[in-house]
Design a protein that fits this description.
mainly alpha, 3 helices, elongated, single chain
Length: 78
Amino acid sequence: MVTIDSGQLTLCLQALERAIEYNEFLSQSETVDKDDYEEINYRYELAINQLAKKYKEACKLDSSLLPLEKIINYKIVD
């Protein structure tokens, strides 16, 4: 199994947050199928929630990590 460090996890969380924001922007266009972008965002939201839980676990083990709220603005569903 591949080990992912906190730096990689942070980068993934931020990238997913940007992808969600970008897809929400694109879905507002009249020339795209909004349902497609909603499905993609749903999958991104599932992934960001799972990664955020992993990051929170890592924060418990390493107090030098920034709190999740300082890394992303996305509201995580527990």
